TrEMBL record:
One of its GO terms (molecular function) is acyl-CoA dehydrogenase activity. It comes from the Eukaryota. Keywords: Flavoprotein. Residues 1-81 form the Acyl-CoA dehydrogenase/oxidase C-terminal domain. The keyword Flavoprotein applies. It holds the Pfam family Acyl-CoA_dh_1. This is Acyl-CoA dehydrogenase/oxidase C-terminal domain-containing protein. Gene3D superfamilies: Butyryl-CoA Dehydrogenase, subunit A, domain 3 (1.20.140.10).
Length: 87
């Protein structure tokens, strides 16, 4: 999805739905992978010497900045699905 968004942008397509969808999917995949790593380590998932807790903290960044998941949902709902503005 990220490569698709980049390819379309390079071709002059100015729509943000592909970029937003790519950001959403990449952020969710990173968070899920880190969450599973923490759960696999059990209580040691929070221990600094395994670095898993740092990866989980860093996986939160794309989910909240610069655009949150909810704002991505709003954008896609309005621009792609034609739903009314919800905020």
């Amino acid at each position: 999805m990220v490569y698709q968004a980049a390819r379309l942008y390079d071709q002059g397509y100015a729509g943000g739905e592909y970029a937003n969808a790519g950001k959403f999917l990449a952020a969710e995949a990173a968070f899920e992978a880190c969450e599973r790593a923490v759960l696999a380590h059990g209580g040691m998932g929070y221990a600094k010497e395994y670095h898993v807790e740092r990866y989980l903290r860093e996986a939160f960044i794309p989910r909240i900045a610069p655009v949150s998941r909810e704002m991505i949902f709003n954008y896609i709902g309005e621009r792609v699905l034609g739903l009314p503005k919800s905020y």
